[in-house]
């Protein structure tokens, strides 16, 4: 089966929810979710660091590989907390076309 670029995140996210609902021994996702929030966060931290290192190295293939790992583990965190991927899409849509500098200036003063 092939997916449009913007559908693959949804497709992977659906698999993550499926693994959460029906965990199997063979599933990396199920084993990570079983280990809980802290383990997922630890993996996310590691994957983020690996992407930073890849970015520093500047090798395109490495950056792509590590970015995919970080995307995947971010989806696992969303799935663990039952946050639909659409919530992130909606937030990105809300920001679309708004300059990051303008957005920051519009925030209430803390
Ligand atoms: N996209 C991914 C994906 N990206 C990365 N990974 C796994 O994430 C793990 C991270 O790699 P590391 O070497 O850092 O971790 P590790 O040393 O194996 O694990 P730890 O002992 O550190 O926890 C590897 O086992 C990768 O295979 C993924 N595992 C699954 N998916 C997707 O999730 C689907 C379901 O996978 P399962 O749950 O395994 O069936 C797959 O079909 C894919 O679509």
UniProtKB/TrEMBL annotation:
<keyword id="KW-0368">Histidine biosynthesis</keyword>
<dbReference type="GO" id="GO:0004636">
    <property type="term" value="F:phosphoribosyl-ATP diphosphatase activity"/>
</dbReference>
<comment type="similarity">
    <text>Belongs to the PRA-PH family.</text>
</comment>
<keyword id="KW-0963">Cytoplasm</keyword>
<keyword id="KW-0028">Amino-acid biosynthesis</keyword>
<comment type="pathway">
    <text>Amino-acid biosynthesis; L-histidine biosynthesis; L-histidine from 5-phospho-alpha-D-ribose 1-diphosphate: step 2/9.</text>
</comment>
<protein>
    <recommendedName>
        <fullName>Phosphoribosyl-ATP pyrophosphatase</fullName>
        <ecNumber>3.6.1.31</ecNumber>
    </recommendedName>
</protein>
<dbReference type="InterPro" id="IPR008179">
    <property type="entry name" value="HisE"/>
</dbReference>
<keyword id="KW-0067">ATP-binding</keyword>
<keyword id="KW-0378">Hydrolase</keyword>
<dbReference type="InterPro" id="IPR021130">
    <property type="entry name" value="PRib-ATP_PPHydrolase-like"/>
</dbReference>
<keyword id="KW-0547">Nucleotide-binding</keyword>
<dbReference type="GO" id="GO:0005524">
    <property type="term" value="F:ATP binding"/>
</dbReference>
<dbReference type="GO" id="GO:0005737">
    <property type="term" value="C:cytoplasm"/>
</dbReference>
<dbReference type="GO" id="GO:0000105">
    <property type="term" value="P:L-histidine biosynthetic process"/>
</dbReference>
<dbReference type="Pfam" id="PF01503">
    <property type="entry name" value="PRA-PH"/>
</dbReference>
